[in-house]
Design goal:
Elements lengths: L1 H14 L28 H13 L4 H14 L2
C-alpha cells in the first residue's frame, strides 16, 4: 500500500508543470576608472572603525579609502 502511494506521489510530481526560473545573464559594463587590486595590512582597530564609518555613511570601505588617499595626495 505504501509503494502505491509513493508511486502516486512520484507520478504527480512528474506531471506537474512548474515554471522553471531562468537566470538572466547581463554583461558587465565597462568601468570608467581603470582599477588594480592592492592588498595591505591595517591595524585591527582601524579596520573596525573603517567598517563602522562605511556603515554610518552608507558607502563602501573602498570608497572611503580611495577618498582618504586622494585627499592626502592633494595636500602634498
Amino acid at each position: 500500500m505504501e509503494e502505491q502511494n509513493m508511486n502516486q506521489l512520484i507520478n504527480k510530481a512528474k506531471s506537474s508543470n512548474r515554471n522553471k526560473t531562468i537566470q538572466k545573464i547581463v554583461p558587465v559594463t565597462a568601468k570608467e576608472i581603470n582599477e588594480v587590486q592592492f592588498s595591505f595590512y591595517i591595524e585591527k582597530e582601524l579596520l573596525k572603525k573603517l567598517k563602522l564609518k562605511a556603515l554610518q555613511e552608507d558607502t563602501s570601505m573602498k570608497q572611503l579609502v580611495n577618498n582618504a588617499i586622494k585627499k592626502s595626495l592633494k595636500s602634498n
